[in-house]
Amino acid sequence: MQKILDAILADELDALASLPVPDSYRGVTVRASEQDMFAGLPSKEKDPRRSLHVDEVRTPELGPGEALVAVMASAINYNTVWTSIFEPMSTFGFLERYGRTSELAARHDRPYHVVGSDLAGVVLRTGPGVNAWKPGDEVVAHCLNVELEHPDGHSDTMLDPEQRIWGFETNFGGLAELALVKSNQLMPKPKHLSWEEAASPGLVNSTAYRQLVSRNGADMKQGDVVLIWGASGGLGSYATQFALNGGATPVCVVSSPEKAEICRKMGAELVIDRAAEGYKFWKNDEEQDPREWKRFGAKIRELTGGDDPDIVFEHPGRETFGASVYVAKRGGTIVTCASTSGFNHSYDNRYLWMHLKKIVGSHFANYREAWEANRLVAKGAVHPTVSKVYSMEQTGQAAYDVHRNVHQGKVGVLCLAPEEGLGVRDAEFRAAHIDAINRFRGV
Ligand SMILES: NC(=O)c1ccc[n+]([C@@H]2O[C@H](COP(=O)([O-])OP(=O)(O)OC[C@H]3O[C@@H](n4cnc5c(N)ncnc54)[C@H](OP(=O)(O)O)[C@@H]3O)[C@@H](O)[C@H]2O)c1
């Protein structure tokens, strides 16, 4: 592995094709033998620092249409939090089911799960049938793993019945020295970014792009008012940038003055600190409080000068969904991709049907959407939101921060990269955007 890293650091990328690939590598894992370790504990007490390990694992054999990538950096996504606390279920069930589908897929069914759904790195090997990429290419990877043998996926690959999230529903993810991806996950690394910056947008940027901008999601247009929950978080920090770039007006919801300040630095003018306002949408476990929905709606109107949101960018789920449906504009769209606070949502359906609102489900992004989202990063129109970077050994702590919601934007992880700041190829373009690139740093 050291020879591979030395070649990358020395910018001798042509040499990579002839350097041997090691039989094993270090990766961040959860172990099947530990999947019951948190049984009976409330979610908040399940500690990723106990379940995430750095283990030496066997390098998988390379199949057709695949690529093996030397990972310089990766990032924490909430799905790694879910995997590490074995909620809502252990991801070993995904690996086992995937493993049953073919001989090649059986590689993924192992007693450990190498996690991680983002990477920036360098292609080491490509499998048969891969022509678009070659060893030495500097890449990022999006996390849509799709088989595409079924007709359903051919208009929108997210509709393929064999669609999986790499590093969550498949093995050999990005929080490791090596990663196995399908070659149609690869995209060019933005040249002006360091490895850890380039690794951080992938999953959330693509998801927010589909959810908010794409016709497959809310199809945002100029002038729309967009209510964004968790606007300084992983998804929200990209949704806010898309809203601003697209001529919409974001109304950013956050939970602290520091997070509100980050939203303002991104250019958002309308920000609600939900903690300071003290919204209590639920009276108790069973009953919501419509007066609180109204109070929230009144605050939005106060900020917008009377407008309700054309689009509500939803992901907190149970705790906020009733309010989201209530405050959306007549004819508006609530677009949801997650349920962080609980997946059994309830809302007053009268507000949905009488006011002709729509609820749209959205999940990750197809290759085209991920490509377009990455292109915006490469063009300096959307910027990474890295606030903090950890080493691979500290991944448990990084996931713990995200689980506890004490992070901002994205949390990066160095894999092979020995330090931050490496991998920049276009320093001039970087300099032109440096303030935006560093906006979330150290907050
Ligand atoms: N379907 C997909 O393809 C997809 C893709 C990416 C992520 N996700 C899911 O989306 C969710 C968010 O991901 P993320 O990366 O944005 O996570 P994140 O970085 O933790 O950000 C989420 C933000 O949501 C806000 N939030 C959390 N709980 C809330 C609650 N009960 N009420 C109101 N706001 C709340 C928090 O912001 P404040 O505290 O500042 O309000 C938090 O910073 C996760 O469940 C993740 O698994 C799904």
From TrEMBL:
One Pfam family this sequence matches: ADH_zinc_N
Entry's transmembrane regions: none
UniProt enzyme class: oxidoreductase
InterPro entries in the cross-refs: ADH-like_C, ADH-like_N, Crot_CoA_red, ER, GroES-like_sf, NAD(P)-bd_dom_sf, Zinc-ADH_QOR/CCCR
SMART domains: PKS_ER
EC number: 1.3.1.85
GO MF, one annotated term: oxidoreductase activity
Keyword Hydrolase: no
Sorted UniProt keywords: NADP, Oxidoreductase
Enoyl reductase (ER) domain sequence ranges: 49-413
PANTHER family in UniProt: QUINONE OXIDOREDUCTASE (PTHR44154:SF1)
Protein name: Crotonyl-CoA carboxylase/reductase
Organism of provenance: Allokutzneria oryzae
UniProt gene name: ccrA
